[in-house]
Design goal:
Length: 357
């Protein structure tokens, strides 16, 4: 491969064809950092409004470092993978305290921050600071596996090192920012997972897979394990004053520190969802609720499991003491709390049912 020609063709295409994205308006390391964390596991179109709202609320390192976690989680609500934003805030606080609010510009410094892996570190260093560091994600591995005819399984963690070494061989030292962004953009727009648009590709002449006719066979990627199905019952329960009971999830584990409605994992051998939910409620809160007919079901897919939630509404008469992790709130107040997507869906379902009733 003529590396200089490849760099020129790739960067020239990016200069002319790049999408207008809010985090590309400048090379602010903080904005690049936030965008890269948001873009993990999430589509660009979904991220754009979240990014804009997040930067309005937390425009600087200092603003995010000093923000209440509840407000940060609320701003992230709906993006999922909430550990990302908790790690981001923790790392931002470290930058604020230990680096004078300036994002580190060395591989050692930035890689020491919580939640900053090799890809994020490389993206910030190259895009914001112009350092020739690799930023290798699935998009980049797919593009390079075709261009350089790399047959290593991209699902294997060890393969990342192979692709990082490949990037170091071909990256532009004059403009590493545009080079890495161009690889990402090429993967998003042209060199897509299925049916790559080879005839539109600006680096087709450099692509070994295209010349060999094997572009659709790459990258090599083994399939993930099948998702586990989990059956749940959950209820929106009101007290005698019409307030809704919500509880905070544990500080660790899935959807940590977010709010939810009372929920029980169902015993598949004991299929009476309503009874199991009622017994669970009584066991935890000392009050047996009245539970209405089912409002329907909600399905929510995580990377490793799938929730099927049977949704109910109900009421209870006994007083339940409030704690920092257990609250009674009005329908207006509930908007201030951060809920995972399945419980947002549940609340929406409940409100629509009330309107139709």
């Amino acid at each position: 491969m003529d590396i200089k020609s490849f760099q020129d063709d790739l960067i020239g295409w990016f200069v002319n064809e790049q999408r207008e994205l809010p985090w590309r308006k400048d090379q602010d390391p903080y904005k690049v950092w936030v965008s890269e964390i948001m873009l993990q596991q999430t589509r660009v179109d979904t991220v754009i409004p979240y990014f804009n709202r997040f930067l309005e609320k937390f425009p600087t390192i200092e603003a995010l470092a000093s923000a209440d976690e509840e407000k940060v989680l609320k701003a992230w609500e709906g993006l999922g993978y909430y550990s990302r934003v908790r790690n981001l805030q923790s790392a931002v606080r470290e930058v604020h305290q230990n680096y004078g609010g300036v994002v580190p510009d060395s591989p050692e410094g930035i890689s020491s921050l919580k939640g900053v892996g090799p890809y994020t570190a490389g993206a910030i260093l190259s895009i914001a600071y112009g350092k020739p560091e690799p930023a290798v994600d699935g998009n980049v591995m797919r593009v390079l596996s075709r261009i350089l005819l790399i047959w290593d399984d991209i699902a294997r963690p060890a393969s990342r090192k192979i692709f990082e070494a490949a990037v170091r061989e071909v990256i532009s030292h004059e403009n590493p920012s545009y080079f890495n962004q161009a690889l990402m953009e090429l993967g998003a727009l042209i060199c897509t997972p299925t049916s790559p648009s080879c005839l539109l590709c600006p680096v087709r002449d450099h692509c070994e897979a295209f010349h060999e006719g094997v572009q659709t066979e790459l990258p090599v990627k083994t399939k993930k394990k099948k998702q586990k199905n989990v059956l749940l019952a959950a209820g929106i329960f009101k007290d005698s004053q019409g307030k809704i009971l919500i509880r905070k999830r544990p500080e660790t584990g899935l959807l940590a520190n977010l709010w939810e409605f009372p929920t029980v994992e169902l015993n598949l051998e004991f299929q009476r969802q309503r009874e199991q939910l009622g017994e669970h409620f009584e066991e935890l809160y000392g009050s047996f609720p009245k539970i209405n007919d089912s409002l329907g079901e909600i399905e929510h897919v995580f990377s490793h499991l799938k929730w099927n939630i049977h949704v109910f509404s109900g009421s209870f008469q006994d007083d339940i003491p409030q704690t920092p992790h257990l609250k009674l709130v009005t329908e207006d107040e509930i908007q201030e709390f951060a809920f995972p997507v399945p419980y947002q869906k549940m609340l929406k379902q409940y409100i629509e049912f009330k309107k139709a009733d």
